[in-house]
Amino acid sequence: MRKTLVLVVIASLVLAFAGMALAKSTTPPAPKSFSAAQAAGVKATDPVSKHEFTISANSPHSQVQNLYYYFENAANKATFDASPDKYK
User: Fold this and answer.
1) Helix (H) or strand (E) holding 45
2) What residues form DSSP beta bridges with 61?
């Protein structure tokens, strides 16, 4: 009886972790460019670091060919501005 209980608990944990992994992998990534300026609170992907972050009122951004790009920090913006075609 005790072995059965342990197996049930282990199976439940495995299924729970598998479900979390599936849920996380099916969430689409945040965009790295936008066709219009975005408000604070919107999720974006920094095109230089490829990290997803939430845009704040102070987030550095660039506009290239009518697309808006947002960055986690000023250094990534400077890197992008030096060679924007590399990150599109």
Assistant:
1) strand 43-45
2) 70
Per-domain residue ranges of the chain: 43-87
CA dist 33 → 11, 30, 72 (Å)? 42, 9, 13
Question: In this structure, what token pair is assigned to residue 13?
Answer: 């944990």
What digits encode the pLDDT tens for the residues 13-40? 777 776 666 556 688 999 999 999 999 9
Count the neighbouring beta carbons within 10 Å of the beta carbon of residue 66: 8
| Per-residue pLDDT tens over the stretch 46-73 | 999 999 999 999 999 999 999 999 999 9
Phi, psi (5° rounding) for residue 83? -155, 65
Verdict on whether the full-model pTM lies above 0.85: no
**What is the distance between the alpha carbons of residues 84 and 61, in angstroms, rounded to a whole number?**
12
